[in-house]
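hiii, so i know i said id send this last week but things got crazy w the move. better late than never?? heres the sequnce for the chain we talked about at the cafe, plus the structure i predicted for it. fair warning i was half asleep when i ran it
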Amino acid sequence: MKKFGVLREKIPFLALLSCCVVVLAISGAVKSAEESKSTMAEASGKQVILLDAGHGGIDSGGIGINGVYEKDINLSIVKNLGSLLTLSGYDVVYTRTEDISIYDNGVEGIRNQKVSDMENRLEIVERYPESIFLSVHQNQYTDKAYFGGQMFYTTNNSGNFRLATIMQNKFAELQTGNDREVKLIDNNLYLFKDTKQPALLIECGFLSNENDAANLSSPEYQKKVAFTIFSGLTEYLKEVENKESINNYGETESFLYMQ
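okay and structure toks below
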């Protein structure tokens, strides 16, 4: 910081601004923004909610029966959810807020770019150990009859099962006939295998199901899903605040989740 101060005295403002732009281009705007956010979040003392809109950019994720891209639905839900949380006084951190993959500059090849993207998402998750981490996705299956949101969790944090259960109940209220159960995932899922903070993988519905795909393609329904997640999260946090028991690991068997 001292060196920066000296430069500011010696270099005209426009030249200094050009240097800053170059530095941002090299280091990556997403990382720089998240590093700044990290400092601000720590200083505020507010609960940090880390939101991950799955896929993005080169990675469309699942493609719905109606042609909709999973990545777009994920992002819309996350941005609506983030707005609700921000208005409610939480510090919100995003892994992405645009239709991008956050791979490092210079990485070539789709496979390598996907690997780099996941590594950078994990780096953000690890930067906020006191956060609550929610990753939003859409499901897909060969049997088109399957429908409804479903929560996936690990036993890395004792509160995960309770968070998943509350969230599953909220989705059951939104989606008539949804009697799906929360599922335990094994520790090979990259973003979750070493995640110690409360963390939840939220599958909002099945893009392979005609009704789910139609609903999830609707901006109004995406807002309803965002509010459903918001309601589940706030109920969980209220329990934590009231020091109610959440030390329930739930299922002990492992369910292999394919992302």
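btw The chain is about 45% helix and 10% strand. thought thatd interest u
miss u guys!!
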